Amino acid sequence: MFPFPIITYAEFIATFALHALQERQTQTYDKPIDATLRKSWFKRTSVGETTLEEMFETVSFSLDKMPDPKDTLGYGDFEFLKDRPYFLFSDEMYMLDYEFALGKLESAVIWRVLRSLRKDKKEPWLSYWGLIFEEYVTWMFEMYAAPSLHKVYSSPQYLNSTDQISDQIIVCGDTAVLIEAKLATCTAADRYSCDYEKIKTYLEEKLVTKGVNQLLNAVERVGAKGADVPDYLSIIKRIIPVIITRDDFGGCWGVNAYLNKRFKDQLTTESLNGIDVRPLVSMNISCLERMMWVLQKKAFAEVMEERIETDPSLRQPFDAAVKYVQRGAAPNLHGHVDAYQELTEHLISDFGMKEDEVVQPTVQPIEE
To answer: Nearest-5° angle of CA 71, CA 73, CA 74?
Structure first.
């Protein structure tokens, strides 16, 4: 796993990001950005030399000390760079990909720990992170979506039962959006195999069996409006089923169309009491983050309807069909900035840094 506590690892990743932010805020137009992270920069901290060496080795590679490369799995296989997104040369680290680097704040913790676990411990570990992912999706709606347009129900249950309806229900007027949030990460071996049968198996096992089918059961049971259906769903006239994946696959070309076909092929409408069941929509978590800003003034159900109307075939990626998904960093996520500032306060204390040496993150405003 890691040669130091996970919180120390997280603080290092945050420090690297703060350094990059600091360099950009001091940039002048006549000079290029100095994106180099030097070991000497940490002399102003209380971080020990051994810990610093271990951290640099965890996230970087050098030409004179290359780790054993794995076999290339196929076209577009960037697993090596995802694991080591920094190039180390003469005690200086160069960030080769910012998205890969920041992704290590979460993904490296999941997968490095997973690889070290016994076989019987792997599934409980992934289930634990699956619950965290569900909580994160709920937190975003509660944090950013306008309460006047959204009623958020987390882990909603049927009456007099412990059966869960879906991971979240977002009620927008007379429309209920039923959400399944899926960790469901595709393995690198399947992702880069260029083998459609492997991708189909992944979709069936991870997103159809554990997503589409759960939504089918929920739609049919809620549509029947039996005595076990909560009162807040009694006025519902329309249901939109949604799958949100942590993996990029939820927003890839053709995936939404495939999942919707599997949904429609199995949907029984006889017992729905006239409720209009809309096509299933899928997206990945990055798309949701980058469109949360619009939910301050527009209902989530309305955005889902626009996605369906813009691309009725549902073949396009979500961010290509929905104009509200901003390019680059997600804007107006003040809750995320607050969380990052809290992490910054911890690293200032733990690393012995001075506050005036640290650039605090700010909310990126949306350009309408």
So the answer is: 130
The side-by-side arrangement of strands in the sheet containing 86-89 is 36-38, 92-95, 86-89, 60-61
> Cα(56)–Cα(12) distance, rounded to whole angstroms?
9
* 263 backbone φψ class: left, alpha, beta (φ>0; ψ -120 to 50): alpha
Condensed to tens digits (0 to 9), the pLDDT of residues 20-66 reads 766 666 656 666 666 688 888 888 788 888 888 888 888 888 888 77
Residues 79-110 pLDDT 10s: 788 888 889 988 888 888 777 887 777 777 78
One domain, residues 185 and 303: yes
Q: Are 170 and 245 members of one domain?
A: yes
- 188 and 246 together in one domain: yes
pLDDT at 28: 60
C-alpha–C-alpha distance, residues 210 and 244, integer Å: 12
Judgement on whether residues 38 and 148 belong to the same structural domain of the protein: no
Residue 89 falls inside a structural domain: yes
DSSP state of 98: H
Structural domains counted in the chain: 2
Neighbours of 181 (CB within 10 A): 25
**Same-domain pairing of 233 and 312:** yes
Rounded Cα distance, 300 and 171, in Å = 9
Residue 368: CB partners within 8 Å, gap ≥ 6? none
pTM above 0.85, yes or no: yes
Amino acid at 272: L
CATH code where residue 191 lies: 3.40.91
48, 124: one domain: no
Q: Is 180 helix (H, G, I), strand (E, B) or coil?
A: strand
Do residues 70 and 193 share a domain?
no
Give the domain range for residue 338: 1-116+333-368
Distance of CA 121 to the CA centre of its chain: 23
DSSP one-letter code for 186: P
Instruction: Give the up-direction half-sphere exposure of residue 311: CA atoms within 13 A in the CB hemisphere.
Output: 21
